[in-house]
Design goal:
Elements: H1 2-32, H2 39-64, H3 74-88, H4 96-120, H5 125-144, H6 154-157, E1 162-164, E2 167-168, H7 169-187, H8 189-199, H9 201-206, H10 211-237, H11 248-258, H12 270-289, H13 294-319
Antiparallel strand pairs: 1-2
Helix pairs in contact: 1-12, 2-7, 2-10, 2-11, 2-12, 3-4, 3-5, 3-10, 4-5, 4-10, 7-8, 8-10, 11-12, 11-13
Length: 320
């Protein structure tokens, strides 16, 4: 009973900062622009954050695994899936029945390669995943010759259509996926083992856990979620272009950190990443309302991300 109470308290502590930030930002937005907190605007922001949320699910698994785990290849994998996946369908809905599973499997395999290089060769996750991102970008350019995808199945385009009131189909799907993955992370045997690995991989090994396998799977999940997000991004935007998802790499890291996942591992969840994604898109909306030039807006967003990562690093040192 006491263990359950402590677990619930930890969840509240993880989510509370994000919720407070969201409330404050909504108040600021409403002061700057009356109607900022209208249902229509809030649902639009939620929909914009939905694609990023998918990426955050995978990124959370990697960061929870510990050992400074991070996946910097997600943006490249997203762009690859966004360009090649829909184009393989020739614009036919039925083509999604095979193109989507193929890219999910390919994404998982790319993540497995990332994980193997990191665990077997003891290479830094940052370096390995950055290099993998470059490799994926090269393959994408080679297959597409840098041309945008013009044939997109109508079924993908329907992701941006409102279904339940103002809520888009994409948002509904992401909410279901989010809670399923949170349940898997918190309740499954694999999820419990992942948290143990993140807390201390050496102790986890001494406990008999197959640490390498557990961590490799986390990178596979991350890359697979990135591939899925690539399809979702095409459906939401309505087009596919080279490097269209590059910004999602750092945004996913920042979102997961804002949501309470520690860069040192062993702590966090996927729902927190969704809250973090909403915070970032709220920030973008507020800066847009202020009418700032693109350069100033991007600079402020970058500064905010840096402050977030610095704060998390300080918290991690205090835990140690």
């Amino acid at each position: 009973m006491l263990r359950k109470i402590n677990k619930n308290n930890e969840i509240i502590r993880n989510f509370l900062p994000s919720i407070i930030i969201i409330v404050l930002m909504l108040l600021v937005g409403n002061i700057l622009t009356p109607g900022f907190t209208s249902a229509n605007n809030v649902f639009n922001i939620i929909c914009k954050a939905s694609v990023l949320t998918i990426v955050c699910i995978g990124q959370a698994f990697v960061m929870i695994s510990g050992n400074s785990g991070i996946d910097m290849s997600v943006g490249s994998i997203m762009s690859c899936a966004a360009l090649l996946g829909p184009s393989m369908t020739q614009g036919q809905n039925i083509g999604l029945l095979w193109s989507l599973p193929i890219f999910l499997i390919l994404g998982f395999l790319v993540g497995v390669i990332n994980g193997l290089c990191i665990q077997k060769f003891r290479l830094p996750a940052l370096v390995v995943t950055l290099c993998m991102g470059i490799v994926v970008d090269g393959l994408t350019i080679g297959f597409t010759h840098g041309k945008p995808s013009l044939k997109i199945p109508d079924l993908l385009l329907e992701l941006g259509i409102p279904y339940l009131g103002r809520m888009r189909l994409l948002t509904i799907i992401v909410i279901v996926l989010l809670f399923l993955m949170e349940l898997f992370l918190q309740k499954s045997k694999y999820g419990r083992q992942l948290f143990l690995c993140g807390s201390n991989q050496n102790v986890a090994r001494l406990s008999g856990l197959r640490v390498n396998v557990i961590v490799v799977i986390s990178y596979g999940i991350s890359a697979m979620m990135a591939a899925l997000a690539g399809f979702a991004l095409v459906g939401y935007v309505g087009s596919a272009q080279l490097f269209m998802a590059d910004e999602y790499t750092m945004l996913s890291v920042a979102s997961v950190v804002i949501g309470g996942t520690s860069l040192s591992g062993g702590k966090g969840g996927v729902i927190g990443g969704a809250l973090g994604a909403f915070v970032l898109f709220l920030l973008t909306s507020i800066l847009t309302v202020l009418g700032l030039p693109d350069g100033a807006r991007i600079g402020i967003e970058g500064l905010v991300l840096l402050l977030i990562l610095m704060a998390n690093s300080r918290e991690s040192k205090l835990r140690i």
